């Protein structure tokens, strides 16, 4: 794994070996194909000290089967170590007893340009997490924090690219929150409708590949939203159901490296062919709550 903290373009395999075809992609993604650049990120994470599966608010959760907290802790530590080894900064929020899903920091807020759009959870089981994350930002010097009037689950349903923010709805985040976020952050927000309960948050069905492209599983979206994605991202990396079913789309890309569930073999191969450097991790215990690498990671964009 190579990291370029100096933000120097790092060259990967030649374009011809990526596709096996002379027809190369067009658009901004094509320019980047030969030079996938890793940019150092600032992440907020929450150690799963109180992790458990005690209720079911998505189809992945089985309170009878439960989950092994110590194994989850070890897997989470390995994820954090992977970020640190890639040169990213990881800050921590104190876990709160009685909030077993608080490890899923992505849901805690949406932070763009140093402005914080707070979370307001759909399910009562997670409601206390919203104010807890907002408080962390207050204590850490953030002043532009909006307490939301509408239900939204932070980066679970908002994914930020260079020009637009993609926003999911259908299971958790309300469309009114998309408008609220656009107004607070001053970025265009594009609504996408999720239709498969297994992929209840946008970040379980799609992830940004740098600032101008995405990878996604088309089956998670309504026909209209699929058409929107095809129009916006003609060069997108498409994942199949097998990759989606191991939460392979719940990945974190720094522009070059993609931290991704190891089981997503097809998607990992496709990313490699496109010049990305997959960094496989095992978060199988956290998947029992419906979470993966991205769910555990809130990006702080200044
Ligand atoms: N059990 C949690 C829930 O259903 C998992 C959240 C996963 N987070 C995410 N960003 N997709 O809310």
From TrEMBL:
Residues 1-22 have a biased composition (Low complexity). The keyword Nuclease does not apply. Residues 1-31 are annotated as: Disordered. Transmembrane segments: none annotated. GO terms for molecular function: hydrolase activity. It comes from the Bacteria. The keyword Hydrolase applies. Keywords: Hydrolase. This is N-Dimethylarginine dimethylaminohydrolase. It comes from Thermomonospora echinospora.
């Amino acid at each position: 794994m190579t990291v370029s903290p100096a933000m120097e373009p790092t060259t990967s395999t030649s374009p011809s070996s990526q596709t096996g075809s002379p027809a190369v992609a067009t658009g901004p993604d094509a320019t980047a194909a030969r030079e996938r650049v890793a940019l150092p990120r600032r992440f907020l994470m929450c150690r799963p000290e109180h992790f458990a599966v005690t209720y079911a608010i998505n189809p992945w959760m089985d309170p009878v089967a439960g989950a092994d907290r110590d194994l989850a802790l070890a897997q989470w530590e390995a994820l954090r170590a992977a970020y640190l080894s890639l040169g990213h900064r990881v800050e921590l929020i104190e876990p709160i007893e009685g909030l077993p899903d608080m490890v899923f920091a992505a849901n805690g807020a949406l932070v763009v340009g140093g402005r914080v759009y707070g979370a307001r959870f759909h399910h009562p089981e997670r409601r206390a997490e919203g104010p807890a994350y907002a408080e962390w930002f207050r204590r850490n010097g953030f002043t532009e924090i909006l307490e939301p009037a509408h239900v939204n689950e932070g980066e679970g349903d908002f994914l930020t690219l260079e020009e637009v923010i993609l926003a999911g709805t259908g299971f958790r985040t309300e469309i009114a929150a998309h408008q609220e976020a656009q107004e607070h952050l001053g970025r265009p927000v594009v609504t996408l409708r999720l239709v498969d309960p297994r992929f209840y948050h946008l970040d379980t069905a799609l992830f940004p590949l740098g600032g101008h492209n995405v990878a996604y599983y088309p089956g998670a979206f309504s026909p209209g939203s699929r058409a929107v994605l095809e129009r916006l991202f003609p060069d997108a990396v498409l994942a199949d159901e097998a990759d989606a079913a191991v939460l392979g789309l719940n990945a974190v890309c720094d522009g070059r490296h993609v931290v991704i569930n190891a089981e997503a073999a097809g998607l990992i191969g496709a990313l490699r062919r496109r010049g990305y450097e997959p960094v496989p991790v095992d978060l199988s215990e956290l998947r029992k709550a419906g979470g993966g690498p991205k769910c555990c990671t809130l990006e702080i964009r200044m």
